[in-house]
Amino acid sequence: MQFDGTRVTVWLAVLAYVVSLAMGWARRRGSNHSDRRAEQWQRALWTAGCLLTVVHVLFAFAEYHHWSHRAAYAHTAQVTAEKVGVAWGGGLYFNYLFLLIWTADVVWWWCWRDAYVARPRGIAWFVHLYLAFIVFNATVVFGAAPIRYATLVAVPVVGLAVFWVRLREPPG
Question: Model-level pTM?
Answer without folding.
Answer: 0.87
